[in-house]
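Reviewer comment 2.1 asked that we show a complete input and output for one of the modelled complexes. We chose the zinc ion case, as it is the one discussed in the main text.
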Amino acid sequence: MAKPNKKMPEKTVSISCAKCKAKLYKYKKGGTGSLIKCFQERITQDFTAQKGVCPECNTIFAREAIIRGVPALKMIGNKVQVK
Ligand SMILES: [Zn+2]
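Response of the prediction step:
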């Protein structure tokens, strides 16, 4: 069985809106591959006014969810860019 990783991931990525390129979050992302969900405790900088909504073009890019008891955001496919 895999142990849950308690350590914060080292890598910080910038999440931006795929439509208008506005900055949304700085996020400590674990592992590789595409971003499917964001744990809210790993967001280091939040540029949004409302959770999951782009502050510039009002695109809804994520929905709030609880994943394994932890507040998270489920990203909606292709609404965000990760660098
Ligand atoms: Zn936008």
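The chain has one domain: 17-82. We note this here for comparison with the apo prediction described in Section 3.2.
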